[in-house]
Design a protein that fits this description.
Elements: H1 17-50, H2 53-91
Helix pairs in contact: 1-2
């Protein structure tokens, strides 16, 4: 994954640098959100242990923020999965004319539910 393209997809399909850059950007976003979640969880735990009513009330908002962050991570991973599938399909488009591939399998696309 260090170069502008990689071919570790089993069938030798190459993915260009722009796609890799998009994936890296998404993974950085995910990591940032996960780092935020770690801080939120620490604060939630401290507030819970303190048993101070104002801190416990504050946890309601913090837990909502945590849940929203988790939804964002799920959405980012879903987008990554979709983008990856599209880029693999696009890069192997020339191979999917129904002819046999080098692995002996017919070149049929597999449809995934959205």
């Amino acid at each position: 994954m260090e170069g502008d393209a990689f071919s570790g997809l089993g069938n030798g399909t190459q993915i260009d640098g722009k796609v890799v850059q998009t994936f890296q950007k998404s993974f950085v976003q995910v990591q940032h959100i996960l780092d935020q979640n770690r801080l939120l969880i620490n604060e939630i735990n401290q507030n819970h242990e303190s048993k101070i009513p104002d801190n416990l009330s504050r946890n309601v908002g913090l837990i909502r923020e945590l849940n929203n962050n988790i939804r964002r991570v799920v959405d980012l991973y879903a987008d990554l999965s979709s983008s990856f599938t599209k880029s693999v399909d696009a890069s192997s488009e020339g191979d999917s004319s129904g002819a046999m591939k080098s692995d002996g399998k017919a070149g049929h696309k597999r449809n995934r539910p959205a």
